[in-house]
Every structure is written in C-alpha cells, then in structure tokens.
C-alpha cells in the first residue's frame, strides 16, 4: 500500500532498543512537526474548505500523538529535551519544486507529507512487530494504523487539487528520490534515522 522503494532493515529495531529514551524524544518532536506541517498547508491553502477541515483534524490528532509520547516520556522518567533536526526530512525537502506555481507547490507539499507519513507508518509497523517492550509494541501498532490514514489523506488531496499536473508521475519521482536517500538511514535510534 505504501509503495516505498526500500524497506527498513529489521535490525534497526535492535538499535532503537539500545536507547528507548532517544526514540521516544525524537518521536515526540516528529509528531509536533507533523502538526505544524498540517497547519502550514492550511495557512497557504485556506480556499480549499475540505482540505482545511481534514487537515485541522489531522493536526489535532498529531498533537494528541505528541501528548501521548510525551506522557510515556514522563512516565519513564525521561525528559523531552530540545527540538531536534530531522535530517531525513531535510533531505526529502530538497525534492520540492521551488519555482512552480501555487498548484505545483501544494501538490509537492502534499506528496512530501504523504511520503513522511508512509515512512513513519513503515517504521511504526516494524516497531510494533519487533520491539520487546509490550507497551511500546501496542502503542506503535495503534500509531501505524493512524499514519496510514494520514498518508491516504495527503495523497488524495494531491490528486484532487493537482489539476494540470501529472500527480502519479510526480509521486513516482518522489518514491525514487526517497528510495535513494533512505539507503543512508536506519542506523540510529530515531524515527527516520
């Protein structure tokens, strides 16, 4: 369903288990950024009422995920710490067309968002299946289901509002691009690392 070019090596979960605090803190900030991204899309595309409505719901859900991860962090005696850079997302952002019109910018932002959700969903699935911590296994299973829905929302809006753009071609290009950059990830205890 996610159409990713390269799956994460299952041994990544072993790296994650060596530093649960790091994965949780990184994950919390990923959820915050996902909420902010949805709000940013709304801000620049408020003329699309259905998009505004769905992305507001998505932003609220992402903030709820942020709150859930933060709760686990506190319960385990960890600290949230400062916001972190997500090098994977920064590399993926380079794919975005900066010289295009508003429609092209919207489509690229929606596809970019769909890709992040797809990769997160894939990582959450792996965590739910392989992590030894039963609480986190269930938690990541529930999030995997949610992220798959988010991926679908972004892809659907890209197709709907991508008039005059070959959205499927652009998505395939992004899948190829992501497949190249993801090869250098999966080596750290972060959601996309």
Automatic annotation (TrEMBL):
GO terms for molecular function: tRNA 2-(methylsulfanyl)-N(6)-isopentenyladenosine(37) hydroxylase activity. It comes from the Bacteria. One of its GO terms (biological process) is tRNA modification. InterPro entries: Ferritin-like, Ferritin-like_SF, tRNA-Hydrxlase_MiaE. PANTHER family: TRNA 2-(METHYLSULFANYL)-N(6)-ISOPENTENYLADENOSINE(37) HYDROXYLASE, TRNA-(MS[2]IO[6]A)-HYDROXYLASE. This is tRNA-(Ms[2]io[6]A)-hydroxylase. It comes from Winogradskyella flava.
């Amino acid at each position: 369903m996610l159409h990713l070019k390269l799956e994460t090596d299952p041994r990544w979960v072993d790296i994650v288990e060596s530093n649960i605090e790091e994965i949780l803190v990184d994950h919390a900030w990923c959820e915050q950024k996902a909420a902010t991204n949805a709000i940013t899309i709304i801000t620049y595309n408020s003329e699309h009422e259905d998009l505004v409505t769905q992305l507001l719901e998505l932003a609220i859900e992402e903030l709820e995920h942020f709150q859930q991860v933060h709760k686990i962090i506190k319960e385990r005696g960890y600290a949230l710490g400062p916001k972190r850079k997500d090098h994977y997302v920064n590399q993926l952002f380079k794919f975005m067309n900066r010289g295009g019109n508003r429609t092209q910018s919207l489509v690229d932002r929606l596809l970019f968002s769909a890709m992040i959700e797809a990769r997160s969903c894939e990582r959450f699935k792996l965590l739910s299946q392989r992590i030894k911590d039963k609480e986190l296994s269930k938690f990541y299973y529930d999030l995997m289901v949610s992220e798959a829905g988010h991926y679908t929302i972004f892809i659907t809006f890209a197709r709907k509002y991508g008039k005059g753009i070959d959205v499927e071609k652009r998505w395939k290009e992004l899948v190829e691009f992501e497949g190249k950059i993801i090869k250098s990830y999966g080596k750290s205890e972060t959601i996309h690392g």
